[in-house]
Amino acid sequence: VQLQASGGGLVQAGGSLRVSCAASGRTFSSYVMGWFRQAPGKEQEFVAHIIWSTGSTYYADSVKGRFIISRDKDKNTVYLQMNSLKPEDTARYYCAARRIGVLEYGDWGQGTQVTVSS
């Protein structure tokens, strides 16, 4: 599985940004696709996930109501739309994949940097 994240950048607080994760190497019908983030000096944090087959989503409390995860089956791409961004959202954002029923994410992308200025 190859996961290629893109779309990060610098944005002002209150702004929006969408990051993408292009997935390849297999069919993802039995997979969960997730977004994680890690800020310097902090532990990795779960952000959101989407079940590829059903589109069902789940969010961390810290982003609920501000971020939206979605997927485009035709493009094999997962998106994370980030709205009302805060400086504390600054981190490197990683996409990851795991099989349904497996707890750990086994496949990871290289990440894309999101910086929110105050």
Structural write-up:
Helices cover 0% and strands 54% of the residues. The chain is mainly β and 118 residues long. Strands 2, 4, 5, 6, 9, 10 and 11 form a 7-stranded mixed sheet that branches. The chain has a 4-stranded antiparallel sheet with strand order 1-3-8-7, with no helix packed on it. The radius of gyration is 13 Å and the shape is globular. The protein has strands at residues 2-6, 9-12, 17-24, 31-38, 45-51, 57-59, 67-72, 77-82, 91-99, 107-108, 112-117. A hairpin with a 6-residue loop joins β4 and β5.
> Secondary-structure element order, as H and E?
EEEEEEEEEEE
Tell me the overall shape. Answer: globular
Computed CA radius of gyration, to the nearest angstrom: 13 Å
The class by helix and strand makeup works out as mainly beta
Termini separation (Å)? 37 Å
Biggest sheet details: 7 strands, mixed
Number of helices: 0
- Total strand segments: 11
What is the helix fraction of residues, given as a range? under 10%
How would you state the average pLDDT, rounded?
Answer: 96
SSE layout and pairings?
Elements: E1 2-6, E2 9-12, E3 17-24, E4 31-38, E5 45-51, E6 57-59, E7 67-72, E8 77-82, E9 91-99, E10 107-108, E11 112-117
Parallel strand pairs: 2-11
Antiparallel strand pairs: 1-3, 3-8, 4-5, 4-9, 5-6, 7-8, 9-10, 9-11
Structural descriptors:
four-stranded antiparallel β-sheet; mainly beta; 118 residues; 0% helix; seven-stranded mixed β-sheet
Short description:
With 118 residues, this protein is mainly beta.
